[in-house]
Amino acid sequence: MAEKIMEFIFIMLAAVTFENAIFTRALGINQIIFKIKDVKSVLTFGSIITGVLTISNIINYFLNLTFTYFLVPNYIKYTLFVISIVFAYILISFVVRKFYPDKYNNLKIMLTMASFNCCIQGVLIISVLQNLSLVMSIAYALGSGIGFTIALLMIYIGKERISMLNVPKAFKGLPIMLLYVGILSLAIYGLIGHQLPS
Q: For the segment 77-126, what is each residue's pLDDT rounded down to a tens digit?
C-alpha cells in the first residue's frame, strides 16, 4: 500500500515538473495569461484546468479500456479524446451554472480557454500512451493541472515585477515577456536535471 502511495506521489510530482517544462517552452501559452489581473484569477483558472484535466482523463481511461478490446483507428481515438474534453467542459459548466449562477458569466471565458487548449490534449495523449492505471491517470492529471497553475503564477508574478521596471520601449509588452519565459524555461529545464548541449 505504501509503495502505491509513493508511486502516486511520484507520478503527480513528475507531472508537475513536466507540465512546467512544457508550459514554459510555449506549448500552453495563450491569451488568458495576458488577461489575468490578480492571483485569485490565476488560481481560479488553474483549478478549472485541473478539473477539466481530471474529469477528461478519467473518461479517457475508460475509453482506452474499450479501445483495447476493439481495434479502433487512431483518428477515432483522438476524436473521442476531444469528445471527452467537451463532456468535461459541459459537466463543469453545468455545475458552475447550477451552484454559482452569479459567477457563471465571469467564468465562462476562463472555462472555454481552460478546456480547449493544447495542454489538455497533450496530457490525455501522454496518459494513454503510457498506459497508466486509473489512479495514476488521476495523479498525472492533478499534477499537470497543478504544474500549469504554478507556471501561470510564475508568469503573473514576472509580469507584475516587469511592469515596475523601466523597460526600453523596444522590449515593452510581449518581447520582454517572451524573454522572461525563455529565461524561466531554461531555469526550470536545468532544475529538472537537463543540460544544454555543448
A: 777 778 888 888 899 889 888 988 888 887 887 788 778 776 777 788 77
Map grid coordinates 498525472 to a residue: 140
Q: Are 127 and 61 in contact (CB under 8 A)?
A: yes
Q: Can you give the pTM of this predicted structure? A: 0.72
Q: Which three cell numbers stand for residue 180?
A: 522572461
End-to-end, the C-alpha distance of the chain in Å comes to 44
pLDDT at 62: 87
Rounded to the nearest integer, the mean pLDDT of the chain is 77
Residue 15 near residue 183, CB atoms below 8 Å: no
Which of 177, 178, 184, 144 lies closest to 49, judged by CA? Answer: 144
Q: Which residues of 87-107 are buried (b: 16+ CB within 10 A; e: fewer)?
A: ebbeebbeebeeeeeeeeeeb
Q: Is the separation of the CB atoms in 148 and 46 below 8 Å? A: yes
Percentage of the chain surpassing pLDDT 70? Answer: 78
**Residue listed under C-alpha cell 478519467:** 58
Q: Under a CB-based contact definition with an 8 Å cutoff, are residues 119 and 19 in contact?
A: yes
Sign for the CA dihedral angle at 22, 105, 34, 160 comes to: negative
